[in-house]
Amino acid sequence: MKIKRKLLIWYKKNGRDLPWRKTRDPYKILVSEVMLQQTQVPRVLLYYKKWLKRFPNWSALARATNADVIREWAGLGYNRRALALRDIAKNFRYRLLKPVSSQDWQTFKGIGPYTAAALAVFTRTERVMPIDTNIRRVLGRLLLGNPWPDPKLDEKLQARAEPMIRGKNFDLIPQALFDLATSICKKVPDCALCPLRNDCPAAKTFLSGTMKTPNALIKKSNENIHRNKKFPDRIYRGRILRLVQESSRALRVSQIGSMIDTTFDSSLDQPWLEAMIGRLEADQFIKRQGRTIRLY
């Protein structure tokens, strides 16, 4: 297939050298996929090997406490991912029939269609295209001529992409598409540099300079921001959790407000602080004992 050949030639020269691309171990691949959710590759590279040293396999992670995984995850953000990953490890450890296909992987709570497909294709147990935002963008433009494809097209893209994942190098195609998406076929693509520009029906329109980015693609933040605070609540919750992670003893709630926000006003902001602590407790990140908190 001409497109596949061009893509692999480009990938051989320009593909990123990433540690999770050198293994077929489903555990190591899952760790990378969960870390890469909402986190840029350079940051994940700082944590990936460190995590595997601390939790080298399913069993080691399955035995970990909430406090263990939260401490090791500190700095990656979106801490629920760490607990979800540990819970998947517990589930995996006690299954007699180990997952092989993407359908098998989707029976695990916390693993959706994309991650399930990624696990299947990168362990080379199934020829399937994992479709996330990046791959959807490239394939939508390349196979359908749609410059702004949405998830409703995923089933159609799976069918149209099937010829691309035939042959011995089928697991390299998604990796090549990832790298093409992040370096060239971005939201506003640089089609002139794309190895597939002559094969892509959307490239001609982009190269004409007449294409405009739809307003619907410009995301508006819907995060909660308290009163006159500079950042959304998730930033301050992250600061609370970091304080607890770094403390060798329980922290007094009365100390925390001024430690996470220099403009903290106890008369106006205490209910806000209590609500954030309550949410962290409900999510099992911290434990509250009277007027002190510590890791769960």
- End-to-end Cα distance, whole Å, is 53 Å
Largest sheet, spatial ordering of strands: 1-3-2
Largest sheet: number of strands, sense, barrel closure? 3 strands, antiparallel
How does the overall form come out from the CA principal axes?
globular
Count every beta strand, where a strand is a DSSP E run of 2 or more residues.
3
Which whole number gives the mean pLDDT? 94
Strand content: under 5%
Unreliable parts: none
Question: What structural class do the secondary elements suggest?
Answer: mainly alpha
Helix content: 40-55%
Count of discrete alpha- or pi-helical segments spanning 4 or more residues: 15
Summarize the structure.
This protein is mostly helical and 296 residues long. The chain has 15 helices and three strands.
